[in-house]
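User: Run a structure prediction on this.
Assistant: Running it now.
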Amino acid sequence: MKSKLGDQGVLQFEAEPVVVASGAVRPARRATAESMAQKQREISISEFFSKNRHLLGFDNPQKALLTAIKEAVDNSLDACEEAGILPELKIIIRQISETRFVMSVEDNGPGIVKQQIPKIFGKLLYGSKFHTMKQSRGQQGIGISAAGMYGQLTSGKPTCIRSRTGSDKPAHYYEIRIDTNKNAPTIVKDEKVDWDPPHGTRVEIEMEATFKKGRRSVDDYIQQTALANPHATIHYVNPLGEICDFERAAAELPVEPKEIKPHPYGVELGMLHKIMTSSGSGSIHKILQKEFSRVSDRVAEEIIQKSGLRGDRRSRDMSMPEAESLLKAIQRVKIMAPPTSCLSPIGEKLILDGLKARFKADFYTVTSRSPAVYRGNPFQIEVGLAYGGELPSEESMELFRIANRAPLQYQQSGCAIFRAAVTTDWRSYGLQQPKGALPVGPVALFVHMASVWVPFTSESKEAIAHYPEIIKEMRLGIQECARRLSAHVRHHRRQADEFKKLSYIEKFIPHIGIALGDILSLSREKQKEIVEVLTDTLQRSRQAD
């Protein structure tokens, strides 16, 4: 390829002739726009995640087993709570070969309507929670179907489901595969079966996995789930045959969260335009009141006035520039914070009871922050702390990260909860803290975020994104507990110092009595009386402390 400067300073290129020697191989023909166009095709969401399963938490065998159980447990707890049923879960893991496991999760929930079973377990991005603004563990409609897809990819076996919606209804048994090219369920088996429970669902998935004990294990996850859900009874059997029963500590369901409408402060331009143009034939004024929370007649009138638009104009005719004017007006109007009835926090008493059941410590404290807002989404932070006792004193703090009552096991360093804990100056509260790390000492910290939409950093829901508003609330909650811990530590240090001084006095009391007797020329009986009086006074002082 030759280049030269043409007329008017324009750089021009000339193709050099290709000379092919006798017997030489002609260069391969390069792709053209037409040939590349023939290769383009739509990518199914199932096909995408089957090749990128690490995004869903299935990037290694140990984590895959935990993720699959977590997704099934989340669905079971959500279903039971929504139906007003105190949850009772049975979780069983069986090892059938060195690398092959079968996990099953059974609940006593309301069951699943027959027609919905294939879509729930055989189609990614299918669910009822994505568009609902109220607290729930599931958000995207990916989890349980992704677990089934992982099992299908690694074992070749379908997902097996039993479900029954009532004692007078038949139980249905399905075996389902996912057609990853179409993101659609393929029904392998569909039949009615005998099943004892009057209502509920049982899901069973065979997969390649690894089972280990210790931190970030399934055992640890089940314990944390019981801690964060004291209203649930959980029966768990691991592959070693060990049976763990966690009886419910609360006989009442959590406060039922209520669905709310989006808040104007949390809406973005494209979403605002979509809401206004797809909400029927109402006026702009009417749609503002109908589709958003905290927009009264007066607030709607003020927004429209500041936007320069006509309130009686049909919202579906709104152009993008008009939507932008409306959005700017919303930001200039003072609107009440969104309602918090959409949240269902655990509660200070239940967190305290859970910490006492889990840890034998000397000191416990819990605080619950008032609800706050990020991007128009309400959220609430709860913090619990246990100190001393049998907690290890030479190790880093044990941190429990919980989001909407679901434990977070992986990606700790990338989580907002970890960031809030690390950036707290624990040295000022009496603990040792290496730079950029958690404090060292006999401490367990429990942080729970309840929100209508937890901003997870990935589809695997393992860490909370670093929103400044969220980190601020977490840090304030942690600092409140840390201040109480500091007062406890200082009090006990003062007591220890006083007891140390008293022990010195106790040690020298006999010598003091003898010396006083010699100085005053007292008899041995009098000296013994002085020693007894001094010892009795010291003991009463200790009892008073």
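The chain is about 35% helix and 20% strand.
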